[in-house]
Amino acid sequence: MTNLHVSTREGLPSEMQTLLRATPRDTWPGHPNFAASVAKWMGAHQMFRDLARVTREDTESYIDTTMDDDAFTRSLARFGDRLVRNLHGHHAWEDQRFFPELNRADARFEEGLEMLEADHVEMDALLERFTRKGNRIIQLAHLDPGQMQEEARGFHDEAVAAEAFLARHLTDEEDLVVPIILHHKLRG
Ligand SMILES: [Fe+2]
Ligand SMILES: [Fe+2]
């Protein structure tokens, strides 16, 4: 049985790679059907990777005391918040508009699109914990700064998990979706 879960799979399952084999990643940028909107969508993915990395790195700087309370809470309120809000909008749009459009264009990849939707559900739960623990740190900065270090350790687990999730999900999503777009000349 193919391993579909985001936390254990090691890439896009091979039976979903039919079009990826015909159009590997290094051919995408020069492909005549590689539309600006697709480059923009991949740019959003890169922003998510960057925001997750910065949040995880700043949490580590705070834990090893090279970042102070103010700078850490500013980072959480800015980068952590931006990551969560933009990801929610991005996933909602993919589930409601983008994936159905791809499925209508090519029904062979329905299982792959369902796998990506299941990733989004998984990510919602992770983002909920990430937000709750992040907000708690920001509250503690006013109420009880002495507790912030301990809370930051718990938050670090979620930041690491978010970064790992995104590394897997975004790459597999691009590997499934971009070849469908190129093959069927969508989103031009
Ligand atoms: Fe996604
Ligand atoms: Fe996406």
Report on this model:
This protein has a single domain, classed as nmb1532 protein domain like (Four Helix Bundle (Hemerythrin (Met), subunit A), Up-down Bundle). The chain is built from five helices and no strands. The mean pLDDT is 96. The protein binds fe (ii) ion (2 copies). This is Hemerythrin HHE cation binding domain-containing protein. It comes from Vannielia litorea. InterPro entries: Hemerythrin-like.
Layout of strands and helices, then pairs:
Layout: H1 18-22, H2 36-63, H3 69-105, H4 110-143, H5 148-184
InterPro entries: Hemerythrin-like
Domain Hemerythrin-like: 38-180
Protein name: Hemerythrin HHE cation binding domain-containing protein
What's the short version?
The protein has helices spanning 18-22, 36-63, 69-105, 110-143, 148-184. The protein has one domain (34-184): Four Helix Bundle (Hemerythrin (Met), subunit A) (Up-down Bundle), CATH 1.20.120. It is elongated, with a radius of gyration of 19 Å.
Q: What key phrases describe this protein's structure?
A:
single chain; about 190 residues; mainly alpha; Four Helix Bundle (Hemerythrin (Met), subunit A); about 75% helix; elongated; binds fe (ii) ion; Hemerythrin-like; Hemerythrin HHE cation binding domain-containing protein
Tally of DSSP β-strands: 0
Structural class: mainly alpha
Shape field = elongated
Helix coverage percent: over 70%
| Stretches with pLDDT under 50, minimum 5 residues | none
Which sequence of SSEs, written as H and E, runs from N to C?
Answer: HHHHH
CATH superfamily: nmb1532 protein domain like
CATH class: Mainly Alpha
